[in-house]
Amino acid sequence: MRKIRKGDEVIVLAGKDKGKRGTVLRMLEEKLVVEGVNRVRKAVKPNPMRGTTGGFQDKDMPIHQSNVAVFNAAAGKGDRVGIKTLEDGRKVRFFKSNGEVLNT
Question: Residue 104: pLDDT band by 50, 70, 90 thresholds?
Answer without folding.
Answer: low
